[in-house]
Amino acid sequence: MNSEATQPSKDLLERILTALVYDVAIESPLEAAPKLSRRVGAQVWFKREDLQPVFSFKLRGAYNRIAHLQAAERNRGVIAASAGNHAQGVALATQKLGCQAVIVMPITTPLIKVEAVRTLGAQVVLHGDSFEEAYAHSQALAATEGKVYIHPYDDLDVIAGQGTIGLELLRQMPRSLKAVFVPVGGGGLIAGIAAYLKRLQPGIRIIGVEPVDADAMSQSLAAGHRVRLERVGLFADGVAVSQVGEQTFELCRKHVDEIVLVNTDEICAAIKDVFEETRSVLEPAGALAVAGLKAWAAREGVTAASGNLVAILSGANANFDRLRFVAERAELGERREAILAVTIPERPGSFRAFCELIGQRSITEFNYRLADPDRAHIFVGLQMASRAEVEPLLARLREEGLEALDLSDNEMAKLHVRHLVGGRAPRVTNERIYRFEFPERPGALLRFLDCMSRGWNISLFHYRNHGADYGRVLAGIQVPPEDQEAFQAFLDALGYRFVDEGANPAYGLFLA
Questions:
Q1: What is the C-alpha separation between 287 and 271, in angstroms, rounded?
Q2: Which residues are catalytic?
Q3: HSE of 31, CA atoms in CB hemisphere, 13 A
Q4: Structure letter (DSSP) for residue 274
Q5: pLDDT, tens digit, for every residue of 150-205?
Q6: How far is the C-alpha of 132 from the C-alpha of 106, rounded, in Å?
Q7: Regarding beta strands 470-478 and 431-439, do their DSSP bridges make them parallel or antiparallel, or are they unpaired?
Q8: Which of 269, 343, 453, 502 has the greatest number of beta carbons closer than 10 A?
Q9: Domain spanning 427-510: which superfamily?
Q10: What pairing do the DSSP bridges indicate for beta strands 308-313 and 44-48?
Q11: pTM, to two decimals
């Protein structure tokens, strides 16, 4: 590699070594995770950024950026856009440094996060339903009011502040560090850590972790240029970024070894893993690295001789009411639970015979509904030692003449159908079934219903909000054949994310 190519990394290394973070940040501990280590088969460590004063690593970069401002810049005040952790980092930094801060947050931001920022002395401006809308408004305010914009990730001083985590890691574990797993949103955290570690110990593997439905960095690295996602999954809201930064992308392209993708259930299982080790409850993005570490370790077949694996626990600003959803999905993510749909004959003794086939497995959920005079459908959750037990059980059920289907990876079944079993309506005709997501804010459900009131009858409706910024709806709408084209035009203009679930087997078995 030529000297010109290495210059940005050299500059960043100097920035990391001279970063001003410890006026507000702690050197977070590196703690062993013995329970997870035994299950994974290698030594696992947690880098506890969830123990920072604002329960997230974000204050490192925010403080370093603001501390390096000239006095005249600081006197103008700063502005940022954020739905949570970056906002609190900026607010704490400006409180410490004695300057004014304006934070633009989406209207959908939970009140607990808004109040946390206000408590730190920042002015909060609520604008838009998404981070993108809040970001655009913050840019406009910065231009008109002359404030300094503090970017959440695409700034070298911010990246350097986050890179001090890498500095600490080498001080805490100078030898035998095999791989570091880092959550990826805009890329500031992994860019800083990777630039430092790869410069000093290039043999350490740097592995980013993204949700499967918010994989902007993975897609960008594969394409060789920054990709903008049309839709971004919102469960791990701390990394829900539609496009990574320019500088973070270039640094990741040079220094990151690979990106691992994980799903919502795996994230929930990782939150449970961390709780069992530490009794701390992480936010979904905060547990992302643990989920990726587990997936990578299973794929690679690691052993005790593989070296030390470190997961960055990046944040613990969890909404309390989200925990019910996490608990509901954790065992599925650990692949220790399976959800099955089984059709049994409606005759005396068939129900008991089914239970005998299940054997001694613990039942986590059981829903039974008569489908017609000859058949009944069962929606059942079963504890498993591993998901490898599912196929033999399905084969055994089918050998006994029972129709059986694995719904463990069926999002509609897990999110909605399990709460609706028994809701069949045989007289409903021309029903179309969709899953919708819409921004959760006061009056949002009423607005959604107003949008749906266009002359088509709603035949099924199930709404769930599990503490996220978006509500989830499963809706059945009766649309006559002659209205199909008009209905499709209505959906396209609605402005909400939607998925057609008409072909979903869970719908056919339990609701159609």
A1: 6
A2: 58, 314
A3: 16
A4: H
A5: 999 999 999 999 999 999 999 999 888 999 999 999 999 999 999 999 999 999 99
A6: 9
A7: antiparallel
A8: 269
A9: Biosynthetic Threonine Deaminase; Domain 3 (3.40.1020.10)
A10: parallel
A11: 0.81
